[in-house]
Design goal:
The chain has helices at residues 18-29, 50-54, 65-68, 131-138, 154-165, 181-184, 186-190, 193-198, 292-307, 374-383, 394-398; strands at residues 10-14, 35-39, 47-48, 63-64, 77-79, 84-89, 94-98, 101-105, 107-110, 114-116, 146-150, 169-174, 201-205, 209-213, 216-219, 224-226, 229-232, 236-238, 255-257, 270-272, 277-281, 285-287, 321-326, 329-335, 342-347, 353-358, 365-371. It is α/β, with parallel strands linked by helices. The chain has a 5-stranded parallel β-sheet, covered by helices on one side.
């Protein structure tokens, strides 16, 4: 706690998504009575982003956090159309620059999240990150329409399934050997390949897009894919260009923070949460942002840091968690697998199954992913609630009839 900011009476929260709104709620819930200014870029009150893909066609209005989580910004200084343009750190204060003027505060919480990647030359490709993006994509889907999705990651797979179920002709183009390969590895990712055909989606793996035009996409082998819309679902990058070198950034542009969400070298006056933050986890090591659960729970850690309210055990360490409803299957994962981990499968690889990743040649579990196995999801949640990686018997882990219990 050596970098804990003292006498914090004013806070600027930059970013009005889930992480920013939850930071305001966590500060107020922790008893903070000072001034809070919330800066946003979209000009609308905070809403939840997962429904943008998961419920693209069934939910046509934003899932307002006021309704979803009871986050009430009434009475707060919420400037929802005033994005930050810069940050300046002084010994006893932090200044946030905006086009409307500078804001000075005792502490700043960076919660600007991530922005979708649109490769150079893909000007007509759509992305899916905001409610406006969802509306634009929604207008181009339906019976008789054609959609090309570039990228078979979490978002790409979710949109492909939703669009195909509504009668859209969908082709998914994935550069990797299998869907979700970046997130879960090619072996586990390959188990999802049959889902695409079953959902009426054409899947092309090991394929890259050379160009995107108003008429569709052109592959590297010159095959043309006519489409009413092309969705670039090739990943996101932390939205940190506005920081202009004012704080240390990781190789991917994320804001590096410690376990208490503090940015090192800022005297505890600058913190970061959510997709923008790369946190140090005592259990998992460096954790990149990008998990919805991080945006939900990390603000509690940041607020406790600013309020000096961490218990004797120190900051909480929520495990990475992701869930996805895609192509008729429910996926949930806890932890963070690494390249080279030992994979153990339980259940039916062609049906409901669970993958367990072990630290090589040990009984330490790094991650668990369950497909259509809710009991294993609940077990994984318990496994990763402790301060260290859990230990499992590998033979028991491979037996689908035996529960996942720590040794």
């Amino acid at each position: 706690m050596s970098e804990q900011a003292t006498a914090v009476r004013s806070v600027v929260v930059v970013g009005a998504g889930l992480a920013g709104a939850r930071t305001v709620a966590a500060l107020r819930g922790g008893g903070f009575e000072g001034s809070i200014t919330l800066l946003g870029a979209e000009g609308v009150e905070p809403y939840d982003r997962p429904p943008l893909s998961k419920e693209l066609l069934s939910r046509t209005t934003p899932a307002w956090l006021r309704d979803e989580l009871g986050i009430d910004l009434d009475g707060e200084d919420a400037r929802l159309g005033e994005p930050a343009t810069g940050l300046e750190i002084a010994p006893h204060a932090v200044a946030v620059r905006t086009n409307a003027g500078d804001l000075s505060a005792d502490a700043v919480v960076i919660a600007t999240g991530a922005a979708p990647v649109r490769p150079a030359g893909w000007g007509t490709a759509l992305t899916l990150h905001t409610a406006a993006d969802a509306a634009a994509l929604r207008a181009r889907l339906g019976p008789g329409r054609r959609l090309v999705v570039v990228g078979a990651g979490w978002i790409g797979a979710e949109v492909a399934g939703v669009a195909a179920a509504a009668g859209t002709e969908v082709t998914v183009v994935e550069a990797g050997a299998a869907p979700l390969a970046t997130a879960v590895g090619p072996t586990v990712g390959a188990l999802t390949v049959p889902w695409y055909a079953a959902a009426g989606v054409r899947l092309l793996t090991g394929s890259t897009v050379r160009a995107v035009t108003p008429q569709g996409a052109v592959l590297a082998d010159d095959e043309e894919l006519p489409a009413d819309a092309v969705l670039a679902a090739v990943g996101v990058r932390p939205a940190t260009s506005w920081l202009a070198g004012s704080v240390p950034l990781g190789p991917d542009g994320s804001v590096e923070v410690d376990a208490a969400m503090r940015v090192p070298g800022t005297g505890g006056r600058v913190l970061a949460v959510g997709d923008v933050a790369a946190r140090v986890s005592p259990r998992h090591g460096r954790l990149p942002g990008g998990h919805w659960d991080g945006a939900l729970r990390e603000p509690d850690i940041a607020a406790a840091t600013l309020l000096g309210a961490h218990g004797t055990d120190g900051p909480a360490d929520p495990a990475p968690y992701v869930w996805s409803d895609q192509l008729g299957h429910a996926i949930a994962a806890y932890g963070l697998p690494r390249l080279g981990d030992d994979e153990v499968l339980r259940g039916d690889p062609a049906g409901a199954f669970t993958a367990v990743w072990f630290v090589p040649a040990t009984d330490q579990v790094r991650a668990v992913l369950a497909v259509d196995r809710p009991r294993d999801v609940a077990a994984a949640r318990r496994l990763f609630s402790g301060p260290r990686l859990p230990h499992l018997d590998r033979t028991a882990a491979a037996d689908p009839d035996r529960p996942l219990r720590a040794r």
